[in-house]
């Protein structure tokens, strides 16, 4: 824990957002000006409508897709030597948290340099897509604003598009998935639901249980998605679609994590001055403890950390995680 550089409530929630999606702070500036591009059809179901490839490392794309009723975007962060090495690289799919201003840019807007600084010199491509303000990395049970099928977009469209357009390993040992808060849940969910896709999974203050405490996280997913994304629609339905909750619940799929690298971190001392952390992080921490106990009971190796403070990304743990991802995945 870097206590002398501890993120403030303002810069952390503005940068990444928390499970308290409906309470997040105001918007952030655009990363890079996008320029129009022609259609790019490659079988993924995605069509590029804007792009910017002027930055040597951070390339930006916006897509039209039938899976999402608006045009989601993605940042693709390339290794320093991508343009000259000719190498093939492993990929980290990295997801943002929930909040009214959270999107594909969030990991690039963190303190202490963010994802660019943390991956400098690393042989790793990082793909950071939109996931909705409260999309919960799911296809919702209902939507009053058109399609918001984030799971379809990420798994069935984005991964094939990345592997068709960048030098990546199109195999389990070439892919990792991680995220913060809502994005940490999404990473844990995808790793279990699609066990052949990812060799490493990371959750930074991400909740792994949909059913503990009378389904607190499931209720929160419904409430925030109805308010921020779906105009009254919900992720899991009211009453819940129990089969869908079980399919998405990491705690109900412990065996799916066997053989993967697993990295978990949560805060154990949120400040009373930060109501967001006081609400969110105790639930996250309790869920991660339950999850770690289940992994341990099944003799599944994992890394689990409890750090002082509340609901935010911890730079040193993020760096440790990236180093572990590079060590686990197939080498460039």
From TrEMBL:
EC number(s) given by UniProt: 2.3.1.122, 2.3.1.20
SUPFAM superfamilies per UniProt: alpha/beta-Hydrolases
Catalytic activity: 2 alpha,alpha'-trehalose 6-mycolate = alpha,alpha'-trehalose 6,6'-bismycolate + alpha,alpha-trehalose; an acyl-CoA + a 1,2-diacyl-sn-glycerol = a triacyl-sn-glycerol + CoA
GO molecular function: diacylglycerol O-acyltransferase activity; trehalose O-mycolyltransferase activity
Classification via InterPro entries: AB_hydrolase_fold (IPR029058), Esterase-like (IPR000801), Mycobacterial_A85_antigen (IPR050583), TAT_signal (IPR006311)
Leader sequence residues: none
Segments passing through the bilayer: 12-34
Enzyme class: transferase
Keywords: Acyltransferase, Membrane, Transferase, Transmembrane, Transmembrane helix
Source domain of life: Bacteria
Family: Belongs to the mycobacterial A85 antigen family.
PANTHER family: DIACYLGLYCEROL ACYLTRANSFERASE_MYCOLYLTRANSFERASE AG85A, ENTEROCHELIN ESTERASE-RELATED
UniProt protein name: Acyl-CoA:diacylglycerol acyltransferase
């Amino acid at each position: 824990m870097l206590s002398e550089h501890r993120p403030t409530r303002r810069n952390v929630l503005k940068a990444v957002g928390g499970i308290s999606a409906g309470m997040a702070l105001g918007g952030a500036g655009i990363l890079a000006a996008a320029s129009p591009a022609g259609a790019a059809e490659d079988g993924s179901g995605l069509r590029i409508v804007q792009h910017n490839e002027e930055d040597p490392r951070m390339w930006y794309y916006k897509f039209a897709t039938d899976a999402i009723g608006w045009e989601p975007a993605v940042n693709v962060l390339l290794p320093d030597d991508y343009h000259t090495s000719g190498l093939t690289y492993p990929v980290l799919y990295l997801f943002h948290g929930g909040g009214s201003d959270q999107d594909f840019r969030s990991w690039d807007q963190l303190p202490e340099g963010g994802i660019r600084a943390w991956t400098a010199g690393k042989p790793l491509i990082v793909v950071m897509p939109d996931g909705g303000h409260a999309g919960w990395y799911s296809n919702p049970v209902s939507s009053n604003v058109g399609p918001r099928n984030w799971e379809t977009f990420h798994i069935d469209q984005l991964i094939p598009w990345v592997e068709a357009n960048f030098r990546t390993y199109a195999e389990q040992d070439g892919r990792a998935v991680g995220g913060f808060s809502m994005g940490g849940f999404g990473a844990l969910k995808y790793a279990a639901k699609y066990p052949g896709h990812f060799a490493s999974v990371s959750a930074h203050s991400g909740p792994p249980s949909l059913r503990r405490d009378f389904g607190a996280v499931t209720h929160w997913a419904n409430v925030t998605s109805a308010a921020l994304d779906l105009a009254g629609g919900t992720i899991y339905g009211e009453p819940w679609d129990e089969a869908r909750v079980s399919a998405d619940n990491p705690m109900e799929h412990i065996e799916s994590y066997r053989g993967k690298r697993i990295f978990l971190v949560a805060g154990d001392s949120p400040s009373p001055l930060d109501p967001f952390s006081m609400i969110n992080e105790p639930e996250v921490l309790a869920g991660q403890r339950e999850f770690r106990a289940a992994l341990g009971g099944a003799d599944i190796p994992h890394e689990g950390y409890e750090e002082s403070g509340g609901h935010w990304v911890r730079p040193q743990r993020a760096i440790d995680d990236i180093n572990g991802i590079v060590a686990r995945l197939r080498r460039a």
